[in-house]
Structures are given as structure tokens and as C-alpha cells.
Amino acid sequence: DTITTAKVADGQITAAKVAADVATQAEIDAKLNLSGGTLTGDINITSTDDTSSAGPIMCLYRNSASPDDGDYLGQIKFQGESDTGVTRLFAKITAKTSDVSNGTEDGLIETAVKVNGSNVIVSRQTGSALKLINGVNLEVDGSVTATGYTGSGANLTSLPAAQLTGTISIARIADDAITTAKLADDAVNSE
What we know:
The chain contains 4 helices and 5 strands; from the N terminus they run αααβββββα. The protein has helices at 5-9, 15-21, 25-32, 180-184; strands at residues 72-81, 87-99, 106-115, 118-125, 130-132.
């Protein structure tokens, strides 16, 4: 049977009933108090609330006596086995503080994945940016719309010239493949 907050609230499930019929309170505490220990098997968290409220909610709370910028708040790890049967961490999601100053708090989320046998942070999401780091590329199956671009553009490839708009500075084109004459004649292509 499923233990729900409604059943507990209306008295269907009491500590006495659980202790007498299912397990001792110590056994229940050992499984439900996740300050240590291991739960084996699947965990399902279900909310039967029929309102638009968020739920179910899982809260990972770091109760630090001395919070500081850069503190780890929690982590979800995805582990499996290598072909030799050794347990390996294949990916993880980590939450951190970046500023704990009261009133101007900032946090971030990092994702890491296994790359050639090593765990590598591949993205960092802050309040102002989604950063792909450590040499991670962005692949998009579809269109990309941007409001601006910075950088040299040296690694941009396969751009459809007919759809490019804006100003091209000849000083930024090192090999002069795009000349003023080609621009005037609308003869620039994406070679």
C-alpha cells in the first residue's frame, strides 16, 4: 500500500499502526532519514494534488554554519559500470553558490560528463549566461537566432551568404577571400 500525506493527515496511518503492522519506528527512520545510508531500488515521489501548485518537490538543503561563495549545495550523480564491472561516475549535476551576500545571492548549476575516462565540467548556467566550457561545441538541429555576436568568427562555417546581413569589415578577413568587388557584385558565397 502507498503511504500518502492524506492518509497520515486523516489518521489512517499512525506511528503505532506502522510500528505494529509494518516495521519498527527505528526501521522506518533508518530508511526515510537520509542523513546517511543507502536506499536500494527505485524511488517514486508522487503528488496527488489537483491544483496548479508545484509538486512533488525535492529539496536538497545545505545547512552550513559558515556559508561562502563557491560552496557546493548538492549534487545528483549518475553512475553505472564500465565493461569490466567497475562502478563509474558517468555524469553529474551540481548546484553551487556564487554569491551568498544577503540580498544579492547568486547560484549556478554545473553539468559534468565522462569524456575519455575523465569527468569534465561541460556547462555552467548562471543568472546571466549558459556557458559551454572546456572545449564543448554547440550543435543545433534547426535554426539559431541571436541578438548579437562577438569574436572573430574564424571558426564559423557553412554560413548561407544570401541570409547574412550587417557589416563585414575587410580588416577582419585575413586572406581577402571576400573582396570589396565581390561584395558590390553580390558574389559572396559560402565556400
